[in-house]
Amino acid sequence: MGPRRFAVALVAMLAVVGVILGLVSGFFASAAGSGLRATGLWSDGGASTVSPGTFDSPAATGTPSATAAADGLPRPVLPAATETRVPSARQVAARVAAVDDAAMGGRFSAQVADLATGEVLYAHRAASPAIPASTTKLLTSTAALSLLGPEHVFTTEVVRAGAGKVVLVGGGDPYLASRAPEAGEPASASLAALAATTAKALRKAGRTEVALGYDASLFSGPAWNPRWPAGYADQVTPVSALWVDEGRTAGVSPGPRVPDPARDAAEAFAAALEKKGVEVTRTAKAEAPASARPLARATSLPLEQVVERLLLASDNDAAEVLLRHVALAAHADGSSAEGTRAVRRTLDRLGLWPDDARLQDGSGLARETRVPAEALVDLLRLAADPAHPELRPVLTGLPVAGVEGSLRNRYGDEASRAGRGLVRGKTGTLTGVHALAGYLRTADGTQLAYAFLVNDATDDFAAKVWLDRVSAALSRCGC
């Protein structure tokens, strides 16, 4: 082959390679673009839909936690641009007023305050009680952490109850699971592990056949709050001290629930025992003898992680279980009525309960609950107070806007995208009722606690959009 023909052949070969590389790189770029579009982090043409620095910051994970700074406060995902300066009430008010609220209808109440100093920078009907929806979970969680402590755990036990009989005793673990968690799933105690330990102990005692009883007597009172309409049956499980997978038959919420969570858990435990070679002759409701000896036990996540998990997902089921534990911690019976009474008394002791507020459940499903915006801001400020480290999970459990939990699919339009990664908040949603309460970091580094409660909204979607936009506007503020 002559030099000229060789050169031509070489050029042709390089051209082919270039085409192939172009196609391959185009494929992966397309695939990456599709994946990022699904998360809202990619747009065709124009600027990125997230603020600069997103990918230089600690990535959000499935665990609701944040990096703590020197002052111990959890940080939003994105860093602030500059150092903190004294905030301006006038500028905060201007930011809120600039976000049009006409489309949502109804009325709103709100308060914004400096998280560190408590200086109120904005207030609109802040002292007027309003329906808080799921921001109620902040109240329940705060009371539980205050009374029980962040390291408290709930224990599910299997005890001996005579020859050839064992009793599964519910300890009110809201996240007791049927199986051990897989990689990437939240940690939790499981009936599978409990059954394995129980079967081992039974075999050691020479038994491979038992009758199984189940005891859910830790809680008392109605399992279904009378203030909940029947239509909420896919939103919350009848409350029980013994359940598995939160009584969700499809593993999701909203979704179908089992009518008798305790029996369902016992049957799941019996099946797990059978898999370990122990025959269960019958399963029946029972009461564990006071002197019964433990055979095996499963310990829940620490309360701080329970609180983080329930706030992240706005978990009605876990919140209602915690309400019963608050009642028991206050030395009352484990009923919903005593739970709400204990929450009120605990928050009053902490200086957080106004005289005209009302509480009817632990999750916020009851529309009769009334809480002013200023009480929620006071609660958030107390959780940030170095004198109350036991309350810190109330802040670390708040989902990050546009990243995780109940805020994962929010902050999607041009007017709210700036809030992604900077705003953390607890959502609240009922028909005509929308709320957001949490904290954020402004463009100049100021940390603000905020609460916005919208009641009687005529356009539910517009109300959510307004909440996203107004909190995002504050995050852009050089206040």
TrEMBL record:
Record field: compositional bias (Low complexity): 56-72
Membership in a protein family: Belongs to the peptidase S13 family.
UniProt keyword terms in alphabetical order: Carboxypeptidase, Hydrolase, Protease
GO molecular function, one term: serine-type carboxypeptidase activity
Superkingdom, natural source: Bacteria
Entries under Gene3D superfamilies matching the protein: DD-peptidase/beta-lactamase superfamily
One of the Pfam families matching this protein, by short name: Peptidase_S13
NCBIfam families named among the record's database cross-references: PBP4
Name of the protein: D-alanyl-D-alanine carboxypeptidase / D-alanyl-D-alanine-endopeptidase (Penicillin-binding protein 4)
Species of the source: Friedmanniella luteola
GO biological process per UniProt: peptidoglycan metabolic process; proteolysis
Keyword Hydrolase part of the UniProt annotation: yes
UniProt cross-references to SUPFAM superfamilies, sorted A to Z: beta-lactamase/transpeptidase-like
Renumbered residue ranges of the record's region Disordered: 52-73
